[in-house]
C-alpha cells in the first residue's frame, strides 16, 4: 500500500450549498480526483484537483466543491 502525506486544501473553488442541511441529517461524501499537477519548482510536491459532492440520506446533493490539495511525492 502506497503512503501519501496530504496537507490541508490550498484552494477551495466553486463551493456551492445546493440544499439546506438540518440537524439529524446523515451525510456522505463522494470525491473524484480530476487532475494531478506535478510541481516544477519543488519536485518533492504536487497538487491534485478533487471534485467532491456531499449527499444527504435522501440521495440529494446538498453541497459541491472543487479543492486543490498539496501532497508530498516519493
Task: Present the secondary structure layout.
Blueprint: E1 5-17, E2 28-38, E3 45-55, E4 61-72
Antiparallel strand pairs: 1-4, 2-3, 3-4
Essential attributes:
74 residues, mainly beta, 0% helix
Give a structural overview.
The chain is mainly β and 74 residues long. The chain has a single domain, classed as Thiol Ester Dehydrase, Chain A (Roll), CATH 3.10.129. Helices cover 0% and strands 64% of the residues. A four-stranded antiparallel sheet has the order 1-4-3-2, with no helix packed on it. The protein starts with a strand and ends with a strand.
End-to-end separation in angstroms reads 13 Å
Mean pLDDT, as a whole number?
86
Give the tally of β-strands: 4
Radius of gyration: 15 Å
Shape: elongated
What structural class do helix, strand and pairing data support? Answer: mainly beta
Helix % is: under 10%
User: How do the strands of the widest beta sheet line up side by side?
Assistant: 1-4-3-2
Largest sheet composition: 4 strands, antiparallel
Beta-strand residue fraction: over 45%
N-to-C series of helices and strands: EEEE
The level-1 CATH class: Alpha Beta
Q: What is the oligomeric state here?
A: single chain
**What's the architecture, going by CATH?**
Roll
CATH homologous superfamily classification: Hotdog Thioesterase
Q: Indicate how many domains the architecture comprises.
A: 1
* Low confidence ranges: none
Helices, by number, come to 0
Amino acid at each position: 500500500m502506497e503512503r501519501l502525506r496530504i496537507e490541508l486544501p490550498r484552494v477551495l473553488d466553486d463551493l456551492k450549498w445546493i440544499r439546506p442541511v438540518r440537524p439529524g441529517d446523515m451525510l456522505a461524501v463522494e470525491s473524484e480526483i480530476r487532475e494531478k499537477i506535478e510541481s516544477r519548482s519543488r519536485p518533492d510536491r504536487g497538487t491534485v484537483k478533487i471534485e467532491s459532492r456531499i449527499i444527504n440520506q435522501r440521495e440529494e446533493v446538498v453541497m459541491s466543491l472543487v479543492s486543490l490539495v498539496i501532497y508530498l511525492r516519493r
